[in-house]
């Protein structure tokens, strides 16, 4: 590799690293405050760059927010990947995800009326429902109506608000929260097997 190729590669890696640092700063700030309160000055300071650098990478604040939410969505899907039909492992993966992103998601849910945030939250609900079907699929009862009722209950039992109630409101430890969510899902499935979930 020539010194010119090396310099170009190093420059490209530096640009990519700066871009990710800026996006991470947006997401960190969005966990701490409402997105309308996240300024370019704050993002630049958190990322250790100038506002001009932020604008050079993203153009304006709106495109910066869009890029940050898009990056977060991709990370969330990857973080939530869990083995199908292994609820114990899947709940552990989910609680790990909530430990990393739960506060951000809760803050975004509080801003759902924002036209930039609302569609992302609607997509998140669909993704979570699909996750439930993937994880608990073989344990679901036979009929469509029965399945929908059980899926609804499992969605509630594994929702970020369940994590919030146990972890943030009750102050329970991560391991206890995981055990409680697993107990909730087991109870829902046990009731379904006995025909009590309709």
UniProtKB/TrEMBL annotation:
Residues 39-58 bind DNA. Residues 16-76 form the HTH tetR-type domain. The keyword Nucleotide-binding does not apply. The keyword Transcription applies. Pfam families: TetR_N. Gene3D superfamilies: Tetracycline Repressor, domain 2. SUPFAM superfamilies: Homeodomain-like (SSF46689). Transmembrane segments: none annotated. Keywords: DNA-binding, Transcription, Transcription regulation. InterPro entries: Homeodomain-like_sf, HTH-type_TetR-like_transc_reg, HTH_TetR. This is TetR/AcrR family transcriptional regulator.
């Amino acid at each position: 590799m020539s010194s010119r190729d090396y310099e170009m590669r190093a420059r490209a890696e530096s640009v990519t690293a700066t871009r990710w640092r800026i996006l991470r700063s947006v997401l960190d700030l969005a966990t701490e405050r409402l997105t309308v309160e996240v300024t370019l000055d704050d993002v630049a300071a958190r990322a250790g760059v100038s506002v001009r650098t932020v604008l050079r990478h993203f153009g304006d604040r709106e495109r910066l927010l869009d890029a940050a939410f898009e990056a977060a969505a991709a990370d969330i899907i990857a973080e939530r990947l869990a083995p199908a039909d292994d609820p114990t492992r899947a709940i552990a993966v989910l609680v790990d995800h909530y430990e990393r992103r739960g506060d951000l998601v809760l803050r975004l849910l509080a801003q759902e009326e924002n036209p930039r945030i609302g569609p992302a939250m609607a997509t998140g609900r669909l993704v979570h429902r699909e996750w439930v079907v993937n994880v608990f699929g073989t344990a679901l009862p036979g009929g469509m109506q029965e399945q929908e009722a059980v899926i609804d209950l499992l969605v509630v039992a594994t929702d970020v608000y369940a994590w919030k109630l146990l972890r943030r409101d009750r102050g329970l430890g991560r391991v206890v929260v995981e055990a409680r969510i697993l107990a909730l899902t087991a109870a829902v499935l046990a009731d379904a097997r006995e025909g009590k979930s309709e």
